[in-house]
Amino acid sequence: MNSIDFKIAFRTFLKGKTFYFLNIAGLAIGLAAFIFVSLYVNNETSYDQWNKNVDRIYLVEREMPNGPSPYTPGKLAADIKSQCPEVEETGRINTALFQIPFYTSSGRFLIKKWVGADYSISTILGIKPKGFKLNPQNQSPTILLSKETAAVLFPGDKMVQSKTVNMMSRSGMPMPVAGVADDIPGNTNLKFDCIGFSADITSGKDQSYATQIYQTYLLVKPHADIAALSKKIDQIYKKAALTDTSQVAREAISRFNRPAIYLDALENLHLKPHYGSHVNNQIVNSLAVLAVIILIVTAVNFTNLYVSQADTRSKEVGIKKVNGVIKRHIALQFLLEIFIQCLAALFIAFGLVYIGLPYFNRLLQVELLVSGINFSILVRLVITLIALTLLAGVYPAWVMAGFKPVEVLRGNQLAKQGKLSWIRSAVTVLQFTIAITFIITLVVINQQVTFMKTESPGFTVKQVLYIDNLALYNNPKTFEPVRNRIKEIPGVKEVTVATNVPGGILPVTHEYAVQGKPYALNTIGVDYNYFETLNIKLKAGHIFNSPIPGDSLNAVINESAAKAMNLKEPVGGSIQGCGASYKIIGIVKDIKSQGFEESIQPTVYLMNDNCGLSKTQIMISAEANRIPAILKTLGKRWVDINKLDGDNFNYHFLDELYGQLFVKQEQLQTVLTFFSALAVFIASLGFFSLAAQAIRVRMKETTIRKVLGANTQQLIINLSKPFFYIVLMANCIAWPIAFIVGHRWLETFAYRVSMNISPFLAALFISISIVLVTVCLQINQAVRFNPAAKLKSQ
Fold this sequence. Notes:
By secondary structure, this protein is an alpha+beta fold.
């Protein structure tokens, strides 16, 4: 490509700068989307990949009648270590289910992520202290702080070794700090503010197989047969549990006719854990597929736009061929021009990424950095750039280099191009098929998210606040004075305390016997006014009532429990569990305490239990307009009101906690909105190029029709008719695809909307509107001309 070629290319660019700007901008947006998604996918798939043993680490999980659980008995790890030679190391983790106050000379701080672990966990999960080594032989606990926590607790202190923190209260348990945990070289599933290591975290605690509160990790030896190991551990667990747990639990295990143990690989725990939600994985896979599709369609659109302008350079090609320039040189010239445009689009894409990354981070609640564009992403971008140049350049270069000088100079080359229009039409159908699929899927997601936000979960979410409290109020008489003091505050309607808050930590599952048959039921410890505070409706019988003697020794179940236990008249019956027998006094309506993705679990509510439940969550329902005054009063009086834990007044709103259950779906909704808008933009560009080309090809026909008396409206209908056929064809292809995609996504929800015709009609309306705006306006300008002048120029 010589200097003359550069001058011609530059003048061509200036002449059609609007067209080239649109073309490069469209490609830049597609590349930016690809870079955004590459950063996100790299981040989400990198969890624990820095750990050299990541492919040999597994979490032991239990299969239960109501679903999987990541918690196992403390004794199981030692039994596995002694009986499974293919296991190299075992370790246990116990995560605090509430915030723990730490006191230092700098003040009081709430530690949100407190983790207790065996020393062996440091080896398995790669947690190392900074500047020294852990001593597994040390019987005293070793506390490590994260770098961020150390900076908060001891601001300005570079050395925190041997410093002391008081836990729970100012004069509470003094704990010496061993040091700061070394920076982990990547993302990890085990995140903590403070981690306490000990030789055996179960030492001095209940060793029964009925106590299942630990997460057990295994480091297996290379080439171990995981399926065989899982079966072996399952046998160890069942054998021990059948001799160690309660009679009801033993009966439940003996009737459990499938494996009770599952080994979940560490590398699966972030995106697709066996026991948790796969929404993260859905977002990653969806984004990856969408980004590739958008990039391909953007490149094809770039090609179409370039070819649609080929006639403007036909004379240039004809003259070059007359002067002896070979076809290969002309093709190479156009390839280089396209490569320069692709390169410019890539630089613009980097600028868009730099500007848009903070918004992208807020959207998906991640902390991506431009520096995260690592070598693998750069390699992908280089390959993408070359592929784009070839994909977007070979076809236009071949078309334009193939112009025949005689035909070009006669003005017949444009008609020849019309024979290739079916290819561009097919590509435009593909573009609109993708755009329509996005639109329909987006409408379905909007319907489901709206349904989740507006449908009643079965309890009152708004105007309810809950207080983090470390004191145990398992005895109703102990909590009674606290309730009375809070209810004295104007605006407070109801007060209660419970083990669980809807939308928070999952309830503990215990085995119960009803008429001699075992059932696994979620167990929630409650107090008087629990159902009134959350406005949970009664279906039959009555709820706990303080004036009734002995009523606190009874049980209330939900509708799902009555159905699961096949009880036609449950009120008045009894259930046995946790070493006691409870009379069923009432049935309450089901509530969607864990959102709309999970089915409502059979649940029993107890006031007095032998299961060891800890009632710490104080909940208050209040009048909306008095909440600020109530919070102010509680803050002042909390030391007097809650004498067992007066230092810790830390409140939250229930609607904010429950709303967290919908965050991932809202993120998916927003992301798909962006990609739908991008797909519609690309499809519009495709229609723009196709319409421009079609109008140029049919200009003689249009001129003759006008001379013969056709009016503007007739000409617009005649020219636009093929584009409406394209839109209808795209809808016919997209509808079944969108139905399958939308239906499968909805199947991930236990409670969902039904697929109806409205998303499809909306997509049809939007696609036709795009044709009217993108094509008809352009056609309208094209048909308003002087036929004599046009025939003279043809």
